[in-house]
Amino acid sequence: MSRQLLQRVRAPLDRMRYRLSGLETPPGLTLLSLLGTLCGLACGGVIILFHAIIDLFRHDSAGLGDLAMGASVTIPLAVWLPILGALVVGLAYQGLSRDSRDGGIVHIVERLTYHQGEFPWRNAIAQFVGSVAAICTGQSVGREGVAAHMGATTSSWLGQWLQLPNNGIRTLVGCGTAAGIAASFNTPLAGVIFAMEVVMMEYTLAGFAPIILAAVSATAVTHIWATDHPALVVGTAELQSMIELPYLALCGCVLGTTAVAFTRLTRLLTRYLMPQPIWLRMLQAGVVAALCAWAFPQTFQFGFESINTALAAEFALGIALGIAAAKLVATAFAVSSLMPGGIIMPCLLMGAAIGQALGLIAAWLLGDSAAEPMLYALLGMGAMMGAVLQAPLTALVAILELAGRTEMVFPAMLVVITAILVAREGYQSESIFLTLLRDRGRDYKNDPVSQSLRRSSVVSYMDRSFRVTPLTITLGEAHDIVGRDAHWILARRDDGRSGYLLPLADLLRFMLSEAGEALSDDDRIALHKIPAVNRLQAGPVHLRATMQEAFDTLRRTEAEALYVQRRVRGDERTIYGVLTRDAIERAYLR
User: Fold this and answer.
1) Which residues sit opposite 565 in a β-bridge?
2) Spatial distance between the Cα atoms of 11 and 90, rounded to a whole number of angstroms
3) Measured on CA atoms in the order 370, 373, 374, 378, is the torsion positive or negative?
4) Tens of pLDDT along 475-505?
5) What gap in Å lies between CA 348 and CA 383, rounded to an integer?
6) Which residues pair with 575 in a beta bridge?
7) Cβ atoms 507, 483 nearer than 8 A
8) More confident call, 12 vs 275
9) Interaxial angle between packed helices 144-161 and 26-60, expressed in degrees from 0 to 180 and rounded to the nearest 10
10) Contact 85, 286 (CB under 8 A)
11) Are 339 and 141 in contact (CB under 8 A)?
């Protein structure tokens, strides 16, 4: 009775998994969009909890709110809080394994590339608790890193629980990332573009539909349950004259060069800090953050307080440049030490401070023809974010949604693209996430072949017309196989770990040969020894695998073909189809 009930439950789930294997077909896309909505709702709840804990600490801690606003506070608070916080987080992380410490966007990209979007729960817990401690104690990190991590992890767990194909889990991870960014900044469209441009690095209909729904549902949850939404205090922000365009291009060059300096300093510090124990690394990052907060209290940042001060042009020129330099150094130390948290919020403050400074210089050089420093601060935020992430659309859309000013799009396009071109073409600088990934000995394949294969499941291209046999069969069994009219014969070894795949025509040719006609029904045929034109060494691949995984398996092993299987219970495995190299080529050429 229990087995029949299990079969009734398993049958619709198997049908759903099969439909999700073709993401761009109507059934698969609809189901994935529904799952994306569920992911967004779940992620929105997790982000609200995360923000509530931080806000509770901020509002209930005397002096911290004033410090974040740039007010002068007692030296012990500004110095000892970041140091003690970094030491506590470092000692806690020292007790974790190396693989359990990773988090943020770099971790998301790595898990998508090398682990088919599966996220360990230890990393999620460590990032959640560690980020709360790091942000509340004034480390130079942002909220969005753990928000994206928690969103991706929540979505991945849902996909793994349903045992979805890996190409479906990959899209759900994008859903969770978009939901995390959207809920953190109240920017649903920027969250979608970020997930597609920075994490998945491709734009497809199969990705857009569920990711948009995830971002919308997560933002809706935060609007319903949260009372404090991130926002920029922006007045009129528009270009005064076309005379400013050359100066704006120069501003883009300055901001692009600053972004490169930040990326290269982060790489240099990573090589310096990596051999050290993690508690010592984080302690050094905490000391640097404390010194920066002592010199420039505005670098102690909970939200948009210091950024809004820059938008109001309340910083003197020297103070603005000092804030940018201090934040750059403190953030580079935090990222290099693996301090849990994000990188976008610090980049926005750096960009706002540099932009305001450039706006003050523009007023001195151009007089009444110069726009307000507020516009330059906005442009600096977008250019710094875009150049560091190498994500122009994400930067433009994020600033547009945060500021709510469409008139700044025209100058923003010029400044952001100039900054990105200077960083990428002038200095050959990549996205900081890919740079850190490569420094860890990892690489990200983003060529058109890999993109196409990652979107496809083995279920969509496997051949279901096959018969499974031992390596040797009797002539009577051979007649029975020929009568079933299968395309392929999968002759497996006794251990079930490998075998041979040969066309049915080769067995039929042998049976009609002189040697085959001399056999009686009880004589045995060694399928791995008979003459065969197309006999292929076959190895296993999981039913949830993508075509990229299948291709990597063929390249990594001696297999020339694959059989698609899934473990049902214990060591019992069910084979669903066979996959040849020709099928993989069809997946790319379709």
Assistant:
1) 542, 575
2) 48
3) positive
4) 888 888 877 777 888 888 776 677 888 888 8
5) 9
6) 565
7) no
8) 275
9) 140
10) yes
11) yes
Residue 568: strand, helix, or coil: strand
Which amino acid would we find at residue 216?
V
One-letter amino acid at 311 equals L
Nearest to 465 by CA among 490, 444, 486, 447: 486
Cβ atoms of 555 and 520 closer than 8 Å: no
Cα separation of 380 and 359, whole Å?
Answer: 10
Gap between the Cα atoms of 280 and 269, Å rounded: 13
Tokens 């996205």 appear where? Answer: 431
Check: CB of residue 139 under 8 Å from CB of residue 341.
yes
End-to-end CA distance of the chain: 45
**How many residues are recorded in the chain?**
590
The Cβ of residue 465 has, within 10 Å, a number of other Cβ atoms equal to 12
Assess contact for 374 and 237: CB atoms under 8 A: yes
> What are residue 502's DSSP bridge partners?
489
pTM of the model: 0.81
Number of H helices, E strands in the chain: 26, 8
How do beta strands 536-542 and 561-569 pair? parallel
Per-residue confidence (pLDDT) for residue 73, from 0 to 100: 46
Which positions ≥6 away from 47 have C-beta within 8 Å?
147, 150, 151, 179, 180, 183, 184, 218, 222
The number of beta carbons lying within 10 Å of the beta carbon of residue 180 is: 38
Q: What are phi and psi of 320, to 5 degrees?
A: -60, -45
3-class DSSP assignment, residue 500: strand
Residues 6+ apart with CB under 8 A from 368: 240
Q: H-helix or E-strand containing 50?
A: helix 26-60
Of 415, 584, 568, nearest to 496 (Cα)? 568
Name, of 186-190, 224-228, 322-326, 517-521, the range with top average pLDDT.
322-326
What is the per-residue pLDDT across 281-305, written as a single tens digit (0 to 9) for each? 999 999 999 999 888 888 876 667 8
36 class by beta-carbon count within 10 Å (0-12 exposed, 13-18 middle, 19+ buried): buried
Q: Which residues pair with 467 in a beta bridge?
A: 489
C-alpha 448/C-alpha 440 separation (Å) is 24
CA distance 2 to 383: 60
Four-CA torsion 557, 560, 565, 570, nearest 10 degrees:
-50
Write out the H or E segment, with its range, that includes residue 71.
none
Closest CA to 471 of 532, 512, 427: 532
Instruction: Provide the percentage of residues in the chain whose pLDDT is more than 70.
Output: 86
pLDDT of residue 48 exceeding 60: yes
At a CB cut-off of 8 Å and minimum separation 6, what does 520 contact? 475
338 sits in the region (left: phi over 0; alpha: psi -120 to 50; else beta) called left
Question: Greatest CA separation found in the chain?
Answer: 102
Q: Residue 302: how many CA atoms within 13 Å on its side-chain side?
A: 23
Q: Residues near 563 by Cβ (< 8 Å), separated by ≥ 6?
A: 466, 490, 492, 499, 501, 538, 539, 540, 541, 575, 577, 578, 579
